[in-house]
């Protein structure tokens, strides 16, 4: 039995000025699925991800979240959608003027209007989950990259989202810190979180991904399990790309 | 000065005459002249003077007590001594002197007064005791080059604009270029810096300068002036013949002994020296203090208003409403494209058309409007400097626009712009100097007053410079301190 | 003005008398008075005047030709008509007038001259034809509030500093605050902006202002002044009785018909209107053009010197020699910590002690020294802005220090600092405005001249503001163009 | 027969202020060897590399290049050493104000005083070698990361150095560009160039490296072939680190 569709992407296209970045995307993300999105630089991976929570608005097409078309929502109505979609960025984007704890408490207090103690409880639970309880009072600048990214994941989780979006979460990290972030993500996937992850960590994709999408030139060129895609790419474009990243 | 005094005196006489004609009870125009006897009976001679004309008569501060001294006072003392009476000095404005004489409040008037025909109609004069005449000041090291008026032909000579000296020089020195300036001190400075070869001046004033400044010498002019316009005499009530005779006797003795040049002028010079000693830079600290105070007030008030205005303009510029954006951009560009100096003039004269604003307020408004534009750009820069990722991270958490601004963007922007904002406040201290041109008593304005007062050109400028530096340096330190406290990383 | 004129006249008389006494061949003091006959025989009446005193006599430009007009000229024309002769007008300075009369170069002198007793000793005067007197200018909308001198009690009244008007007001209006300013135009402005309620002025001048500005009205003063000091009469050589009698007859007719007020003053007013029309802002474009020119010259020269100095200071600051570093840092910090205004004064007066520098040079030096410090910091910032990696890459290729600077660091630094350097050049245009305080004829200085000349306070300021904006905006455009051409990426 | 030692590192230590970055390094690099240097962030890898061509000067110890102690050389004498040691940086550091060709010609002309045509010939030869002949007139900003790094390698080679130093040459690159740079480096190694490479590309190390050095806490903790070090690390420190980077 196929699970229920959480995100439906129908005929989505996106232009910046005259350049077509997304050309005609039609995909579905189902409840509990982990999707890995791969593809060369400039393919439009980040753009697609950012369309999902309306950081960008598609030029045409519709994106349904829980059956609701989010492309027609006003700026004000977006809040409720974004609460339900956590996002983690390549460059962490923690708020440097707040402690780790304050980073985690900000959104629950401001958006969900929780009281301070409730927010603090949830924050500490999440810090324990990412293994950083002792850094609660630290400022982001004093943390290593891996630690910052784990805090960023916790911060997104603090809103208790239905879906998590990751945009190359490990590519700004020193190699020995990649593992700690991936393991947090792996646990998240194991707990049944619906996830869309832009990544080139093939190990992670093979272990966790239900589906890998290969994107190039504004289209999803190929779709399949990690094994299908990495070991037996069908299109020339995919063969070439996968050859390059395995070769290194 | 003398010119104005003369005019004044004429008017005073006119007014007095008028009053008398109108039938006011005139005092003691005794047919029988008891003027001398009356004074000797009372045992005191009342002299009226206007002590603002060194070395004739001027005030001096000694041990904190103000005292009238000068050549005229010395002469009066000698006269009183000769008459065996005590001298009493009454100070008043020049134009009240003859009135005081007519109304019996004084027995005689000594104030470097010229016995002009008009005055002679209403008062009696003693013999002329001193002929001031016209001098030129030249630099001592050039004294041999310019020994007399003739040698000034075809040279640059200075004089106060609109004075007798200016016109005399222009008329009587062949080929001369007369350079007019407003302030005596500036003339002296121009002379000492060899921008001029000589400065025309009334003799006593010239001598006062020479006494105060060993690098200057005075040379006499050869203008032909009549004594009644340039000599000084003592004024008495009409018909005080016996007193006049007695005084003339004293004056004759004084002249015979050449006391005026040998003693009185020298004494006056000494007092002036004391005055100058007292008026060293330290003595003027209150002037500088007031200047610093005003400079800081202007900078502080303008800074606060500028920040408010700047935030407003920055938000307008970032707003999505086209009209706001356009207004803000135009304002900022225009203000940043024109000098503060012309803005100060514009506010002072322009806004003044609508409401009546004192110079200080005009100055503060202009500086505020100016700094508002710069601060707006700093704030906008600060907001831009917060990485787009911060905004996106906050958005993706579902935060509202205003929460993002308040909690995420502005705190970081403030930290980023702190140094630039600090520089702007420091600029404010420096730029507030420009309001001096509309007469606000800031540090520059005060410096100019001290410069005029002390005949010293560079020292007050230097002191103001150091004071400015202390202010800006101090502020830098304070700002750095706060910047340090804002660091989280 | 009148005050000075009077003094001048006195001197002129003295000099003339002196000359005569010295035995110079005096001309035509004929015992038999043929003065009138001689004129009628010649068929022309030569009038000497000093045409700088509207509405009495002044120059006007009509179709490019300069012409002497005014009330006195109208009267003289009428007199010449009555005498059936042609009128010839000779213009000269006021102090030469009586000399011209004595030496036979003119038959009569008309120049708003007061028949003072001194003058009467050397020349003959006609009857008084016009009594100027003293007026106050008030705003028309307040005319009902201040209908007369009495109503000015306890108010703020303005007058030119050091003039008769100033002293009269101070003395005769109870409780008044007299505000002295240097320039007539500033007084009018202060009045119109309600900073003052009235301005004391000689009647004809006041009337001239009223004619030029419908928002002002003149009210007469009630000072008691005698006609000989305030009335005007025509001067003739001593003993020209027949001419004087004839002229007095003409004057009597003129008075009877009230021609002066009804016709002559109105005519004069018309010319003054023409003058004003001619002197609209457009008419003063040469003034503004000169100002712009000087402003640009100062900015350009200072910019070039500033860059040279800046490079030097930056290299010193980056050098390893401690003394150089320290000198450079101290210099930069001190200059950046004090206002340009005080630096300009310091250079003008301070350096002037050593060498004699014109104001323009002083101004350029001060602005250059100032911008040098700022440019040094910009250059240093530019060098710092080139990433350390560039330096390391060049080093690891074995390049020498100087090759690295020349080929790698400086070209990139220059590109990086281009915008900051551009801003500095734009600042230079704006900041050069400060040199106006030492009398350099830059745009601000010229603006002030135009302001004084046209009695218009805001318009010249506004025009200067726009001109500054055009200059800075234009420069911005030019710089952006070059910046575009420097981009490789 | 062991080849001749090109670089000898004897008792080298380096402090920045009070922090000891290098503590006591004693190693030898022999002619034609390829050394891979691995270790956690902050271990001192870059510092050691930069000491080899005197971009940093060790606090104590000596570094011999061709038998000559370079730590005692004056600023002026360094030129001759640096000519013989090419260096390639993580961030490429091409000169943005020059075209690719000018980048390559600069050092031969300024340092070796070649004439323009000789320098140009060599530059074109090298561009062909890295496969970028058609980019000769382009400015660096118009090149992709991989292309820039290949130009940087060519630029270093233009001085015909005896040794090449690489500091994480691929870690700033998008994954699909890593391969092209590594293959250039591989060819270089095959041609017998002596190389010291800081990298975490295990595939490259296994294929090319004669020796891998594991650095941590300012010491070279372990040394061996790639197989020895990656598959059978001896020290705890190395086990932990290699576990982390393989884990990802
Ligand atoms: N705001 C924007 N304005 C104009 N063009 C943009 C904008 N954002 C992205 N692009 C362009 O859209 C294209 C796709 O960008 P995108 O960031 O989605 O690629 P990507 O697949 O995430 O690449 P990478 O792996 O480098 O992150 C690129 O060519 C990029 O230059
Ligand atoms: N110029 C410097 N001044 C002070 N400390 C420095 C300096 N350069 C490096 N360090 C410190 O020396 C230590 C080692 O730095 P180094 O760059 O050599 O490490 P690395 O092994 O190359 O790490 P990475 O993998 O992050 O590049 C670090 O703690 C770093 O902070
Ligand atoms: Mg991306
Ligand atoms: Mg490193």
UniProtKB/TrEMBL annotation, chains A, D:
Entry's localization field: Cell membrane
MF (Gene Ontology): ABC-type amino acid transporter activity; ATP binding; ATP hydrolysis activity
Domain ABC transporter: 7-242
InterPro entries recorded: AAA+_ATPase, ABC_ATPase_HisP-typ, ABC_transporter-like_ATP-bd, ABC_transporter-like_CS, MetN_ABC_transporter-like, P-loop_NTPase
Keyword field: Amino-acid transport, ATP-binding, Cell membrane, Membrane, Nucleotide-binding, Transport
Superkingdom of the organism of origin: Bacteria
Topology term for the membrane: Peripheral membrane protein
Stored SUPFAM superfamilies: P-loop containing nucleoside triphosphate hydrolases (SSF52540)
Chief subcellular location: membrane
Family classification: Belongs to the ABC transporter superfamily.
Protein name: ABC transporter ATP-binding protein
Automatic annotation (TrEMBL), chains B, C:
UniProt main location, coarse: membrane
Localization annotation: Cell membrane
A UniProt-annotated Pfam family: SBP_bac_3
GO cellular component: ATP-binding cassette (ABC) transporter complex
TM stretches of this protein: 294-315, 345-367, 457-479
Signal sequence region: 1-30
Organism domain of life: Bacteria
UniProt xrefs under CDD domains: TM_PBP2
Record-linked NCBIfam families: HEQRo_perm_3TM (TIGR01726)
Protein name as it appears in the record: ABC transporter permease
Species in which this protein is naturally found: Secundilactobacillus oryzae JCM 18671
